[in-house]
Design goal:
This protein has about 425 residues and is mainly alpha-helical. Helix content is about 75%, strand content about 0%. The C terminus is likely disordered.
Amino acid sequence: MTAPERTQITYRYERLRAVTAGVLESAGASFLLLIALRWFEAGATIKGIVAGGASTGLLLSPVTVSVVGARGWRPSRAAAALAACGAVCYLAAAVAALPAVKWLWLYAIGAVLGATFTSIFIPLLTQMYHENYPEPERGQLFSRTVMIRIAAALLAGVLGGKLLDAHISNASWLLLAFAAALAGAAFCLNRCPTHPLHNSDGSHPFRALKHAWHDKIFQRTLIVWMLMGFANLMMLPMRIEYLGNPRYGLNLSSWDIALLTLFVPNVARLILSPVWGRLFDRMNFFALRATLNAGFGLGILAFFTSDSTAGLYAGAIIFGISNAGGDVAWSLWVTKFSPPDKVAEYMSVHTFFTGVRGVLAPIVAFQFATGNSMHTMGWVAAGMITLSVLILLPEMKWGKRGRRASPAVEEVSE
């Protein structure tokens, strides 16, 4: 199969899978936590666990890459199998949410495992993009599928919000839709071409983490991402809590919450996604990352430090604009800095540390919120993001062509 044919087939099925990804994005962004809050009336610990479900998958992603490489499987086929497992888990959560059952712990386990299987194969997708999308247009091709994903998330947010507003016991139907979406994703991934992945240096499941020690530019970038990402992931579930918990005085409807956490940000993402895709292909990466971080910080401040409706909408819009660039940068940045045969490994390190902060950040956030105001939390998060921007500034010199333009300078051998 020629390279153009591989690109064409991958792009065709990725556009189809983007529809399912949009539905699943609405699950992780709002609905899983909203169901835990309003249907099951879950406590802080369960809400934190549910909010961190996708991050658990990221935390385990190095194991995924290791197993797939050790067995010589094709990344796309392995990702399809994992997506199918996630569909079964969401089906279990749907059963747990039936009014006749209403079993909190089964719901929590099903929701967490479903979200885990949704994200555990992400490094395998990055490997697929590296193989099948030509470098000069990789960001643009990816951003076009993101636009479809965003449109699907918008529609899912509207329909899901209306469904839960009609009656919160409709949660089972929503969870059934998430199961169907993951089954559809498995179908699409199974048809994307990829070369078998092979381990080259051992079989330890977390051996890829060595790259965070030996590659100093990669290491510093991960530190920056940890600061920004922890702050952002800490405040992400707080949006639902802030808008939906009567304690904070807003107590908005499910539709209004979906509007502010899904619809408005995703409209902004939809409009700006192709712009960020082109910028990713052409712009100094670290300058791009610093700009995005600043946007996330401003969005948090606008959303959580203003009591007005205008502040909420401004925060939602700024978050959506930044998230549009974050989609591309988060998913593809390692292709600029890793050796061609280590893309999946580098990405698994990135997703692992994303998982670490993603698991911890919601739990820290919900516990911190018990004794502090949302205003205080917003300022703390913005301070962390500001520090991440300051650390990025000296790295600008490496962002134009990528680290591979000067491989010997920042690598160490010990």
